[in-house]
Amino acid sequence: MHSEDSKPTLPREELNTVLMAAAEIARVRGSSRLPEGRELPELVLLAADNLPEGVSFDPAALADWLAREQVDADVNVDEADRGTSGAAALSPRTPQAVRALAAALLGTHAAAREAAQSLGAALAAAGIEVTVREQGAEHVVFSMNDFDWEDKTAGAVSLAACLGGQEAVDDLPLYRRSGRRKLARRLRLLLTGAVGPVAMAMDEGCGIHEPDHVSLKLSLDQAERLGARLSWAHPEDDPTTFESGLVT
Fold first, then answer.
1. How many CB atoms lie within 10 A of CB 229?
2. Model-level pTM greater than 0.70?
3. By three-state DSSP, how is residue 110 classified?
4. Of 22, 45, 89, 140, which residue is most buried, by most CB within 10 angstroms?
5. What span, in angstroms and rounded, lies between the C-alpha atoms of 138 and 59?
6. How far apart are CA 119 and CA 222, in angstroms?
7. CA 225 – CA 187 distance, rounded (Å)
8. 9-67: per-residue pLDDT in tens?
9. Are strands 88-92 and 131-135 parallel, antiparallel or unpaired?
10. How far apart are CA 27 and CA 115, in angstroms?
């Protein structure tokens, strides 16, 4: 229950800041605002991106979600901000409802944020430099910004070694684009063996100034399993057991 009646009422500007911060952290497509003539802020959504699974961009669906979260608010189509798909304004009726809406936004991503932080810590402890963030409420994405041409420093090589696949990536010509593509494919196979099928995207750099960039998308369960795997499988433990990297 989100009731916070015991807390003092904040000024409307501070309530707007609270709601705006929650929307930014949750990465919803929309923003908080203080409409003229209204005492409380409202959240204007442009799409249902990063809202809970199953909540569509429809006034009735949004109202049902607010009711489930015990948020006392109106949902209206915002004619002034209508675009090709329109906009929906979520208008809390009380200061407590503003806080409840902020808590509902943050609550949908709490598990994903925790999974991202935990995986980021495990990767850092293993000496792998990556950027880890939540994507929506159900996934974690980590990006290797140092997917470069040095076989001793590339994050993908270090991760492969942690998964027991050092031999699979040894001696690849990372100075060649074909070598880096092979590295990405083999890393994906190692991860699939460790945590199940994963989604991978590779953006190739210019070849001179920009390294290649690899991003992997994991479910929360996969992120937890990878973090657990990294906690005991470090490169120095057993750098030559490629087969072990293919065992779930």
1. 19
2. no
3. helix
4. 140
5. 23
6. 10
7. 16
8. 568 899 999 999 999 888 888 899 998 888 999 999 998 887 877 788 888 999 999 99
9. unpaired
10. 16
